[in-house]
Amino acid sequence: MSRDPRTVDRRVSTRCTPYDAVRLIAEELTTGIVIVGNDRLIRFVNPAAERLFGRASTKLVGREFEYPLAPTEATTIEIMRHGGVPGVPVISEMRVVETTWEDDAAKLVSLREVGGGESEQSRQVERERTLRAEAEEANQAKTDFLAVMSHELRTPLNAVIGYAELLDLGLGGALTPEQRQQVGRIVASGRHVLGLVNEILDLAKVDAGRLTVDRVPTSVAEVLETAIVLAQPQADARGLELIVPEDPPRDLRFVGDRERVLQILANLLSNAVKFTEPGGSVRLDLVDEDPPRSRHLVAATSWIGMRVSDTGIGIAPESLARIFSPFVQGERGHARRTDGTGLGLTISRQLARVMRGDVVATSVPGEGSAFTLWLPQAEPDGDAVDESRGPTEVEASRTRGLAVVGEALMQEIEQIIDGFVERVRKDPPMPAAAALKYSQIADHVGAMLADIAAALVTLEDSGGAPTMLLTDAADLQRFIADRHGVQRARLGWTRDALERQHTILREETDTAIRRHLPGPDVAGPVDEALGIVHRYLELAAETSRRGLERELQRAETRRVDE
To answer: Are strands 42-45 and 281-287 parallel, antiparallel or unpaired?
Structure first.
């Protein structure tokens, strides 16, 4: 049955607006059609335009049209198709004409694809992908090589340093002053090279994604005190004042890796010492403020800040942003006068961020710099984890019997302290000692002797080989001796009095050990052990002297200021 044409016309006129008709026609076109208002917002797109942009009309309508809309004959534009080949545009021909849309002035944009996509650009992208993959493979090979070589270098270097330190203790026989000086240079040079190798190894681990750290509650005070012991000799050698917290809270803990945090603080303190002129100061503080806004500082609600600041050369503003980049040793950078790799700050920040913290820097050229390590604060009831590694077994012929002497020393500590205190109270160079309490005179001495006794046992157990236990013992002895010197200065000791009390301590120790082990069968081990004990006490005396002189200088400065 045929329809009356007038009926059809009447239905179109009553049910379909002119704009609906345009939509119906546009939906059938293979050319992309976009209607854009004078406010540059898209009002309509047809299916062909959806395919061209790679987006549905619901994602396009209402968005701004980003291409020029001046009416022209034809313009070639590049469209980045959503979901297409990354980095490869679709080349399209665009025409713009004036129109009216829903009674408002608008522009009708026609778009016709003329090239791009999977053409020559696509092949170029594929070639770039291949080259990128080859470069990444080569970079991985480099990283693996650095990791292996750094490990292979570090193992013999640790042995060189360890055996040199054992020679310095006299384990292989007595050294002349000249020989001891040369051994000291071997140790210093070895530690310097080992530091460089460790930095390269850490960077290789970062690149390879193999850098792991502990995240456990750890005492802030313990780490600060150890860092101070390591940095104090450097500051003394440069003629700098190292200003430190007098009594950090013992219950304050961060969440992190103790050794890695110590590594960061030691690096920041070392940098500060290097770039501060003699007569200046380096300060280590706990920060009582909120951390800066940073996407790296979002893992906790409470933070601990440990800041190292100096009165050194400072950092130019244009260099401040790049000092954390690897191998930065630029003339204007903070690392200008170092002879290292330029990796210290890079690794420090990487380590902090792996522990969910950060290292941030501020500086004023000519006035100094400040580096702050931020770490999450632990809950008050968190417990620190203490990890240690066992010793290595090697030849033990020269150390046989040292453990017996160490155990004897441990048993005689109380008698040694009694004799020490009695003689100090009666000694003319120390008249102030007579009025002091027993605990004030004996302060630190017991801990120092107990650590030396433990070192003798460790030396025999390891057969005279370097071990981490010996390294830890040396760090502990330096810390105890430094605190002892500071305490003596506060009690009114002079340099001569400090030297005299160390002579008394050495004599009382010798007497006690020989009294405990009088037999001829142990004469050899006793003599060798006493030589090692004497060297430990000499090192302690040197460290105590530096602590005393530093504290006396601080007291003099306070008197002048008052």
So the answer is: unpaired
Residues 164 and 109 in one domain: no
Q: Residue-wise over 217-244: b if at least 16 C-beta within 10 A, else e?
A: bbbbbbbbbbbbbbbbbbbbebebbbeb
52-56, 109-113, 152-156, 462-466: the lowest-pLDDT one: 462-466
Answer whether 135's CB lies under 8 Å from 53's CB: no
β-strand partners of 485 = none
User: How far does the chain reach from its first CA to its final CA, in angstroms?
Assistant: 117
pLDDT at 294 over 90: no
95: its two tokens: 């025409």
C-alpha 425, offset from chain centre: 47
Range of the domain at 271: 216-376
Answer yes or no: do 176 and 108 share one domain: no
Over residues 78-113, the pLDDT tens digits come to 888 887 777 678 888 898 988 888 878 889 999 988
Mean pLDDT of 418-440: 84
Which residue from 118, 114, 110 is spatially nearest to 25, judged by alpha carbons? 110
Neighbouring-strand partners of residue 106: 37, 99
Positive/negative CA dihedral, 216, 220, 225, 228: positive
Q: Identify the band that residue 9 occupies on the pLDDT scale cut at 50, 70 and 90.
A: very low
Of 174, 208, 242, the last residue of a domain is: 208
Which of 147, 173, 208 is where one domain is finished?
208
CB 301, CB 356: distance < 8 Å = no
Residues 236 and 160 in one domain: no
87, 75 Cβ separation under 8 angstroms: no
Write the pLDDT tens digit of every residue in 445-467. 888 888 888 888 877 777 666 66
Per-position DSSP letters for 430-483, written without gaps between them:
-GGGGGS-HHHHHTTHHHHHHHHHHHHHHHHHTTT---HHHHHHHHHHHHHHHH
Does the reported pTM lie above 0.70?
no
Q: Extract the tokens encoding 529.
A: 């052990």
- Average pLDDT over the chain, rounded to whole? 78
| Count of domains observed in the chain | 4
- Of 230, 228, 367, 236, residue with least CA distance to 309: 367
554, 478: one domain: yes
Phi then psi dihedrals of residue 92, to 5 deg = -135, 150
